[in-house]
Prior knowledge:
- There is one protein chain.
- A seven-stranded mixed sheet has the order 9-12-6-13-10-14-15, sandwiched between helices.
- 43% of the residues are buried.
- It is of the alpha+beta class.
- Helix 5 packs parallel to helix 6.
- The longest helix is centred in the N-terminal third of the chain and has 18 residues.
- It folds into two domains: 183 residues, Phosphoribosyl-aminoimidazole Synthetase, Chain A, domain 2 (Alpha-Beta Complex), CATH 3.90.650; 106 residues, CATH 3.30.1330.10.
- The chain contains eleven helices and 15 strands.
- The protein is globular.
Amino acid sequence: MNSDEATLAGLIAFLSASAAVREKLHIETVYEPARNLAGETRIGDDCAAIPDGDGWLLFAAEGILPAFVADDPWFAGYSAVMVNVSDVAAMGGRPLAVADVLWTPSPDQSEAIWDGMSAASRAYGVPIVGGHTTVTDMRSPFLAAAVVGKARQLLTSFDAKPGDALLSVVDLRGEWRSEKPFWNASVSAPPDRLRADLELLPQIAERGWCQAAKDISNGGIIGTLGMLLNCSAVGAELFAHRLPRPREVDLKRWFISFPSFGYLLSVSPEYSARVVSQFSQRDIACETVGRITAERSLFLTYGGARALFPLSGVSDPHAKCR
Length: 322
């Protein structure tokens, strides 16, 4: 086994053992009961897309892990807004407003959470317009948030096509949030830049340059790509050595990272150079890192090594939505 083969084998073993990756690869089993309740709305996208006049109303919600809220309440509050705004952008939309769900044992314990939500609301220019806020007898805080947005043209998880180029888009101008696998390029960024960067997603949708996209979330690149492939009923080949990542960041850690601005795009080759240029002009890393295939499997390559990643062979009966 040469060095490329050894690196790739180690990467596949690491990702196959990751709980966050397993959860994403089997998330469909969790939301299956919702299919019977959703009417004609497709389940599996970053937001529900509801026809509305000449566009789409986008609606999404995110629950924040209780351990995250307890360990880092300010950033948990910030993230509750940030991840919802990112989900709207991943659908080619623009966020309109956020509502919160916050239960805490005392008003004092909600203060840092509110400060974080307020900071994100100001940074992204998205108001928090209400929700359900309660002080009650419970051991630890509970936090969730929902967002509503609008899109003129959709980016979806269902429109990746064989022959498309697979693009990775990520803002590398950040740093790790403590020891967590979260790449934070948001908190210290100028608000004007954050808003203009998010505007790139609806722009490429409205220009017809891209139809399929997904926000990189918990589970990182592989978990997110697995969900995209499942929704679109396609496969892919991913070139691990081409992934844009910060200097000196370990490849394994980067593969499971959750960037504050990170997306996978499935783009027709005729538009891929335009999309790369659109992001590069704003100093956002955007590279072609693979291709979409008709065969419903995922191959990883690293240098001269190539191997099948077991999308269906990684089992977790306790998978949960993030």
